[in-house]
Specification:
By secondary structure, the chain is an alpha/beta fold. It has 12 helices and 11 strands. The strands form 2 sheets. It has a 6-stranded mixed β-sheet with strand order 2-8-9-1-10-11, sandwiched between helices. Strands 3, 4, 5, 6 and 7 form a 5-stranded antiparallel β-sheet that branches. A hairpin with a 5-residue loop joins β5 and β6. α7 packs parallel to α8 and α9 crosses α10. It is globular, with a radius of gyration of 22 Å. The two termini are 12 Å apart.
Length: 370
């Protein structure tokens, strides 16, 4: 029997390990998990509250933090783009009182490999980004990508972690504080993903060595990020979280020391629902993930090369459309929606094509359900 999202949060809260790393597919409910976890720990929010930042038991990074920032675009002249910041004491404290602006910029450039320069105004209510050329020329007020925006917000949170670490080094009586981090990487290339994961792992190791009483819970949908943390940290507990057809969750511990077998997990999950015909819309997401991970593992540049080739081109095009449409839902409620038989048949047909035609699955060992 599966767990409710509250029961998953409670299980994580009750664990005495300093580090828990959780892999979850997009659409599983990682952001909701972070909020349910917060409700178990405390009733207020460190961003919205006037309480001193160091008094909070729970600090989180997730999509809600990104909602503090929004764009005001100059659509007429296309040269006055600014990122607005909802008024809050947290940003003011970090930039004005702690002087973390330069540190945040340095982190941002490190992880993006760009020459973008963010500038915050005196009231800490808006940001403008400029691009620095090597010849001292500057392109002001440019619109950055969604990936760059998310990464800059992560760098703000990373600077907050620096402040927390520095403050706790001087405390003689430390109360446990929980840091919940939900997917800090968006659109980073592999090198910068590894770099960010290694930096986070070093911070966690320092916390453990210095006994700073920080407890980390990290969720991600990125296998590379998961693997780097998995292999970099000795004392940790690792899980895969998945959603069942009835809306409940499985929280499965990864007990071995081998790298994360995400392809095998996907394969086993699809095999179970196909055999029972309990196939939901979310399983298109699982199938798409399996195809993409398999293509990467086998060295294919285009994952569509792994799809079954039909003599009728319209059938092949229909498979691609079903995969694309059904694995990119904007509404979380759609994930558990029942599928018509023809779409269930598509999932079953593509899955069987993969496992029967690519030798990588012939010697795969199943992940135990125990």
């Amino acid at each position: 029997m599966g767990l409710s999202i509250i029961e998953v949060a409670q299980k994580l809260k009750d664990e005495d390990k300093n580090v828990q790393i959780i892999y979850a597919f997009n659409g599983t409910g990682k952001t909701r998990l972070s909020k349910e976890f917060q409700r178990l720990v405390e009733n207020d929010d460190f961003i919205e509250s006037e309480k001193d930042i160091h008094e909070h038991k729970y600090i989180y990074y997730n999509a809600y933090m990104e909602d503090l920032f929004y764009w005001e675009n100059d659509l007429k002249s296309d040269n006055g783009h600014k990122m607005k910041i909802h008024s809050n004491s947290f940003i003011t404290w970090l930039f004005e009182e702690q002087g973390q602006g330069d540190n945040i910029t340095e982190k941002f450039r490190k992880y993006t490999g760009s020459k973008l320069t963010p500038r915050i105004n005196d009231k800490c209510t808006e940001l403008a980004f400029s691009f620095e050329h090597g010849n001292d020329e500057m392109v002001p007020n440019i619109k950055i990508s969604k990936g760059e925006e998310s990464n800059y917000i992560w760098c703000i949170f990373s600077a907050l972690l620096d402040e927390i670490i520095e403050e706790r080094e001087t405390l003689s009586d430390k109360v446990e504080k929980i840091i919940f981090i939900d997917d800090p990487i968006t659109s980073l290339d592999e090198n910068h993903t590894i770099e960010l994961a290694m930096d986070l792992a070093r911070l966690i190791k320092y916390n453990n060595i210095m006994d700073l009483k920080l407890k980390f819970i990290i969720t991600t949908h990125n296998p590379l990020f998961y693997n780097v943390l998995h292999n970099s940290l000795n004392s940790k507990k690792c899980y895969i979280i998945s959603k069942n057809g009835d809306g409940t969750y499985n929280l499965k511990e990864q007990k071995n020391d081998s790298p994360f077998s995400y392809q095998i997990f996907l394969k086993n999950e699809l095999e179970k629902v196909i055999s029972s015909r309990d196939i939901k819309k979310i399983h298109f997401n699982y199938l798409r993930n399996l195809i993409e991970k398999t293509a990467t593992f086998l060295g294919y540049e285009n994952s569509e090369e792994l799809l079954p080739k039909s003599a009728k081109s319209d059938e092949y095009d229909n498979i691609k459309k079903q995969l694309g449409f059904n694995s990119h839902s904007c509404h979380s409620g759609d994930e558990m929606a029942d599928l018509p038989d023809n779409q269930k048949d598509t999932i079953e047909m593509v899955y069987k094509h993969l496992v029967e035609n690519y030798a990588v699955y012939a010697e795969c060992k199943e992940i135990s359900n125990e």
